[in-house]
């Protein structure tokens, strides 16, 4: 059997990993995780070593490692490595001084310092603040709570401070074209709040439906708003999440973009025609398409 017969297309790799083919192409373009061998005039084909790198990339991102760091580890690790074979730690553990400062302020219940640190971070943009500071600190405190059963008050205080800071980003003065909704059993809205704020920074309007959006409510909102894009977010999938996704794709007229986001969807394959961005940068790229606005 020839090398070409053993190789895989981007679509075949996407199906094996349970991600959208656009994700595979983004990982190639942004992080250099494409085929090691490229032949002029031929479609790109992935061999077993390429697939192993992408499998490690996906495993690390599901475990909470920042995509750029996960890609670096995947490129440098021997073929066949798993997340447990690497020295990778969640982005919260590899974060810098700013994350440690935010974490200390949260543990001390110092609201003033939290607000100052978050305001300073947002001067560099929502995407930077969310990916390098807010999300890592939130994940860290969440892990501490899961491990010890403590720090509920810290988690709530930090969440409220992040929400307050994101709400301070001026909303885009444009017609809202993006609909943001959590799964029917999902209470955590901060990732969507960050999405709404980041969209506003680039002039894209959105509507936030918030936590625990029932299937019927989502269908009604899509019809009433004429949304051009629908983003569904779940930290952990439940049975109703699938029904919610089906409702979004069955809407008439169907929104040109339906995206399933969050750790819950990262660990599950999505149906054909449904985008599955792995991070906020990739989601924003998807939602800024000129045809949507």
UniProtKB/TrEMBL annotation:
PROSITE patterns: HTH_MERR_2. Keywords: DNA-binding. Gene3D superfamilies: 1.10.1660.10, Cobalamin-binding domain, Methionine synthase domain. The keyword DNA-binding applies. Residues 7-76 form the HTH merR-type domain. One of its GO terms (molecular function) is cobalamin binding. Residues 72-95 are annotated as: Disordered. SUPFAM superfamilies: Cobalamin (vitamin B12)-binding domain, Putative DNA-binding domain. InterPro entries: Cbl-bd_cap, Cobalamin-bd_sf, DNA-bd_dom_put_sf, MerR-type_HTH_dom, MerR_fam, Meth_synthase_dom. Pfam families: B12-binding_2, MerR_1. The keyword DNA-binding applies. This is Transcriptional regulator. The lineage of its organism: Bacteria, Bacillati, Actinomycetota, Actinomycetes, Micromonosporales.
């Amino acid at each position: 059997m020839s090398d070409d017969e053993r190789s895989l297309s981007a679509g075949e790799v996407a199906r094996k990993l349970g991600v959208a083919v656009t994700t595979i192409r983004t990982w190639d373009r942004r992080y250099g995780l494409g085929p090691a061998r490229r032949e002029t005039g031929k479609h790109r084909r992935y061999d077993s070593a390429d697939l192993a790198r992408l499998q490690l990339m996906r495993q690390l991102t599901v475990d909470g490692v920042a995509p750029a760091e996960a890609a670096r580890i995947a490129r440098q690790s021997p073929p066949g490595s798993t997340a447990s074979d690497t020295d990778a730690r969640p982005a919260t553990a590899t974060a810098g001084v700013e994350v440690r400062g935010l974490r200390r302020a949260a543990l001390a219940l110092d609201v003033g310092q939290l607000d100052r640190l978050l305001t300073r971070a947002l001067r560099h943009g929502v995407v930077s603040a969310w990916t390098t500071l807010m999300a890592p600190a939130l994940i860290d405190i969440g892990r501490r709570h899961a491990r010890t059963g403590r720090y509920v008050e810290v988690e709530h205080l930090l969440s409220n401070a992040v929400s307050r800071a994101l709400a301070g980003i001026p909303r885009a003065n444009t017609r809202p074209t993006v609909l943001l909704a959590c799964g029917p059993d999902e209470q955590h809205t901060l990732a969507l709040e960050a999405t709404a704020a980041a969209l506003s920074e680039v002039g894209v309007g959105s509507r936030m439906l918030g936590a625990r959006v029932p299937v019927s409510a989502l269908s009604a909102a899509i019809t009433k708003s004429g949304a051009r894009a629908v983003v569904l977010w779940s930290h952990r999938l439940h049975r109703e999440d699938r029904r919610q996704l089906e409702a979004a794709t069955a809407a008439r007229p169907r929104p040109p973009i339906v995206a399933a986001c969050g750790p819950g969807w990262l660990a599950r394959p999505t149906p054909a025609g449904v985008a599955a961005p792995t991070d906020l940068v990739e989601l924003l790229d998807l939602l800024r398409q000129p045809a949507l606005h």
